[in-house]
Design a protein that fits this description.
Length: 574
């Protein structure tokens, strides 16, 4: 617990109590009495403030602790690769931590390196002692173990290059284990999400019968179900975002590759068309609500298609990168550091999808462009997030005078392991996509079937009440037993259910992209397909229900009602 509190920004348990626990409890107690005395709210509302305060006190430090741990795990592979490459410069321990502390994009790792450098130099604690103290407070076991091993090496005086070269496999093995564990966590969240979706669907199906039993409005049930579904989807997204390391396939640089430019151009063209078409169909109001919306967003399918195509292109470039970097590093080492001449010699070789980027890099460097800017454009043209990080590690280490062959070998080996792990993530995302499609299908069928049956039963009961009103004594007995059945506005009910399908489809498509780390615009592809599934079911389920149950209700109504025919059930689609 002390480690969690310390990582939350508090120096001690006493400071945690004074600065967080006591103020939060005081505010919650004040809100408790204020709502209980001044506001006419349900009796349980004031107690919710107390419960929220206690939950916040325990959850806040744990969330920060987990966020820092995830941040370290997201960058540990970049850190160990960078440390291994610059160790070929034969630098001392002080310069090593200084270079790592300057890499602010490494997040919590760079902050930790900055702390180690400060305590070791300014407080004269020494690097070995400082590393051991920082390791005990680190939220990441991988990083803590590395710091402990590093401290032992510093005590024994082992060469840094030898140690960091050997540490590549040790840290990457731990990273691989943690990565696979995060994939297992995703599977667990997938099972929880699907179970909760099915539970919400069946709970809503059962709750839709409450108007027939208790006489409450069906809109109350539908609105609470909508809020519950939104809360469930947002909770899962926050859990994935906060507790599972991300692994983005595409970079977020300002300079874009050709595939990303095509995505933006297509969005600028089909976006306004989709918006105008959606507004027209909704105003025209001749088609069901979900059908109109599905037709309106269909042009966005083109944007999603280009995004999926871009994902495949980037992944092919990633697979070609290890061979390219090994060849480049070996050529530079053979030519004694001549990067431009090495790239010129490699032009005769075929590196597949990386050939255009390599030629552009050679031309920029040949023309005297700023060297790091040239490597930046190389990374931008590949569209790959991994290549963006690793190519800058390679360029910086080589230009500082490191051994190009060893640098390329370290980068190539770690990069290949990351690609293997990413393949596992893609397989998991593929299974998750199928599960989410099935969950949406089951949810939509269950809810629309429940609404159709509820409407049929409401019409049947209303017809029965109409018959009993002809007999005064029977009417008084029935009225004392059963509550009055409120009218069901099927148009408004379908509107709310349509909103549920839209929100659930949107959240599901976002979750898929968060898991596989692909291009965010590719979510439009899944969203459009999911929306069409919901639209077809929203139109077909009521018709199927009327065909399946309508004749049965008509026969029963005719048999019981004599000369009074059963009401014909009409379903108005919005």
């Amino acid at each position: 617990m002390e480690k969690i509190i310390t990582n939350s920004g508090f120096d001690s348990v006493n400071e945690f109590m004074i600065k967080l626990v006591i103020p939060v409890l005081l505010v919650c107690v004040l809100l408790f009495f204020a709502t209980m005395i001044l506001l006419p709210l349900p009796f349980f509302v004031p107690y919710l403030f107390l419960l929220a305060g206690v939950f916040f006190i325990f959850f806040y430090p744990y969330a920060i602790f987990e966020r820092k741990k995830v941040d370290i795990h997201e960058n540990i592979h970049l850190f160990i690769t960078y440390a291994g490459t610059i160790s070929t410069l034969h630098i001392n321990r002080s310069m090593l931590f200084k270079k790592i502390a300057e890499k602010r994009k490494y997040g919590e790792i760079s902050k930790t390196a900055e702390k180690i450098l400060y305590f070791a130099k300014s407080w004269n604690l020494g690097f070995a002692k400082t590393c051991r103290k920082i390791a005990r407070l680190s939220p990441s076991t991988i990083f803590a173990d590395f710091l402990d091993r590093f401290a032992a090496v510093l005590d024994f005086g082992e060469d840094l290059e030898t140690f960091l070269t050997e540490e590549q496999d040790a840290v990457m093995d731990d990273y691989e284990t943690t990565y696979k564990q995060s994939l297992e966590n995703i599977k667990l969240l997938e099972d929880v999400f699907i179970s909760m979706t099915i539970a919400v669907a069946f709970a809503m199906a059962a709750a839709l019968l409450l108007p027939l039993i208790m006489g409450i409005s069906i809109m109350v049930v539908v609105r609470y179900a909508l809020l519950g579904l939104i809360f469930m989807d947002l909770l899962l997204i926050l859990m994935i975002k906060g507790f599972i390391p991300t692994d983005n396939l595409c970079h977020d640089l300002k300079v874009k590759d050709e595939g990303t430019k095509k995505i933006y151009h297509s969005l600028m063209v089909v976006g306004p068309i989709s918006l105008v078409l959606t507004i027209f169909l909704l105003v025209w109001n001749r088609l069901p609500f979900l059908v109109s919306l599905a037709i309106g967003v269909t042009p966005l399918l083109l944007v999603g298609f280009y995004a999926v195509k871009e994902e495949n292109a980037v992944f092919r470039r990633d697979k070609a990168f290890p061979a390219f970097i090994r060849a480049l590093g070996g050529t530079i080492y053979t030519r004694q550091g001549g990067i431009i001449s090495s790239l010129g010699a490699l032009r005769v070789h075929d590196f597949g999808v990386l050939n255009p980027m390599m030629i552009n890099l050679y031309r920029r460097l040949k023309l005297g462009s700023e060297r790091f800017r040239s490597w930046f454009y190389f990374a931008a043209e590949t569209g790959s997030n991994l290549i963006n990080y690793f190519i800058h590690i390679f360029a910086e280490s080589v230009y500082l005078g490191g051994n190009a062959e060893k640098i390329a070998l370290i980068i190539s080996k770690n990069f290949s392991r990351l690609i293997s792990l990413r393949k596992l993530r893609f397989q998991l995302a593929s299974g998750l996509r199928g599960a989410l499609y099935g969950a949406l299908l089951g949810f939509t069928v269950t809810v629309y079937m429940a609404v159709s049956i509820t409407q049929m039963l409401a019409d049947m009961f209303a017809a029965a009440f109409t018959r009993t009103q002809l007999q005064g004594e029977v009417a008084s007995v029935v009225g004392s037993i059963l509550p009055a059945i409120p009218a069901i506005d099927i148009v408004q009910v379908n509107l709310y259910i349509g909103l549920m399908v839209i929100i659930h489809a949107l959240m599901s498509s976002i979750i898929i992209k968060m898991v596989d780390g692909g291009n965010r615009f590719a979510a439009l592809f899944d969203f459009t397909i999911m929306l069409w599934i919901g639209a077809i079911l929203s139109w077909g389920i009521p018709i199927l229900s009327q065909w399946a149950f309508g004749s049965m209700l008509t026969v029963e109504g005719g048999a019981e009602g004599g000369e009074i025919p059963a009401r014909e059930l009409e379903y108005e689609e919005y």
